[in-house]
Fold this sequence. Notes:
By secondary structure, the protein is mostly helical. It has 9 helices and no strands. Helix 4 crosses helix 5 (85-99), helix 5 runs parallel beside helix 8 and helix 8 packs antiparallel against helix 9 (168-183). The longest helix has 25 residues, at 3-27. The model has no long low-confidence stretch (mean pLDDT 88).
Amino acid sequence: xxxxxxxxxxxxxxxxxxxxxxxxxxxxxxxxxxxxxxxxxxxxxxxxxxxxxxxxxxxxxxxxxxxxxxxxxxxxxxxxxxxxxxxxxxxxxxxxxxxxxxxxxxxxxxxxxxxxxxxxxxxxxxxxxxxxxxxxxxxxxxxxxxxxxxxxxxxxxxxxxxxxxxxxxxxxxxxxxxxxxxxxxx
Length: 186
């Protein structure tokens, strides 16, 4: 396959994922069908199926994209801190601070859609395991990094799933407390 053909294929796959995201935002996981994505993307159903053989494959690709964005955002924030357990935690806290009030409809719908797909949940679990392994490898006080990670995860998941609707101003004192605890890791 030529570079140009590969590029067009990648572009088309991106258009399909963008369309799937729009369908999820608008109607949630139940609205996510190959037909709806095809209509949103302006493609035939066969055009979508050429890139993603099923709704599950589409969900897996959306999860992979979302987790790649999350990893990239966290890595950028981590790079602003010295390496080590404190830097790892501070980077995650800073990423949450910067992204907390972003639109959650897509994330909520994607999480709920992927809950029916064990493979998609495996990607989320791998992300959690990766974070926990990094805290273990950083050799901070036993369990503290993991506790900070799960506190951050609780804030994010609580908002994503609608368990709370804390404003940025309300969440800031929580992040400040977690930041103080993170600084004690080194």
